[in-house]
Design a protein that fits this description.
This protein is an alpha+beta fold. The chain has one domain. Helix content is 65%, strand content 14%. A two-stranded antiparallel sheet has the order 1-2. α2 runs antiparallel to α3. The relative contact order is 0.14. It is found in: Cell membrane.
Length: 148
Amino acid sequence: MALNAQSYTAVVAIVGTRPLTQTFTAKFRDTPAFVYFVIANAIAAAYNLEVLLIRRLILRRRMAGLVVHMLDMVIMALLATGAATAAAMAELGKNGNVHARWNPICDRFGSFCSRGGVALASSFTGVALMMALNLLSAASNAQCSPGQ
């Protein structure tokens, strides 16, 4: 999504026999929801990479494992909200809003919408995997807890 951009040139008027054209560009930076989506995924990727690199050092202590589990849940929530906001804007771009008189743009920026859709599908897959990992982590922490 961070590299997603597409231009579209349209004829806006004809002066004599010469058409006047206007170039329109769709970029992910034009929509705050897409910017939030990219930032949320970047934070999650950096966090997960860091945890993978220092996992052996952290998980030797039980309390540190609990902190990592809690941070994993925060990251999952961050990913879910980023994907949800981007999905809402993608739906608006695809179908528009008749009541607000916002026209859809995917008929003109097809590849922009297609790449955004792939990014969204990948992100929702990542959210599902994070949820599965969180459930496994919770089950692992429950089995390791003393006094049961």
